[in-house]
Amino acid sequence: MSDERQVEESDRTGTSASARDAPAERPPLQSNVPLPHRLKMTGSMTVNWRQWKQVWESYELVSGLSSQTGEYCVATFITCIGPEALDVYNALPFERAGDEKKMDKVLQLMEQHFVGESNVIYERFTFQKREQMPGETMDQYVTALRVLARTCSFEGQRDDLVRDQIVFGVRENPLRKQLLQRKDLI
Fold this sequence. Notes:
about 60% helix; elongated; single chain; mainly alpha
């Protein structure tokens, strides 16, 4: 390309021909996969974080984000989490300069913040106090119990304890009576 044409081309696009021809480090991520919703900052933060993180990890995979630089991943993460969770991110105790641009480090520190050390007694108390709510379907109630049971360290007894809690917490006594008569419940 002649020098005159390069200048003409540069004037029109705002980019020199040599800059356009240089290979980019990585192409910008373009995906039809929608970004994860904001991290819900009310209710059980342990449950909210674990659900959001599961969606995030799936998003990284299906969108191709996981093949981008750590800095790019963290910038996308910050875009998704919402302003309240951004305050948490900004207060994370990064040990070394540059850790804030490493996605694995960010996820590790966010996990420590939202989950921390689990208080098994509290988790089991919450599980055992859970009763079926007015208007809640049986499927919704069972799902809620299964979610709560994940943090209770029930080991190999989870299904049995969820079954028992269904019987204890169901709202309707006639249904409870039916459940108590079945030997093959769950």
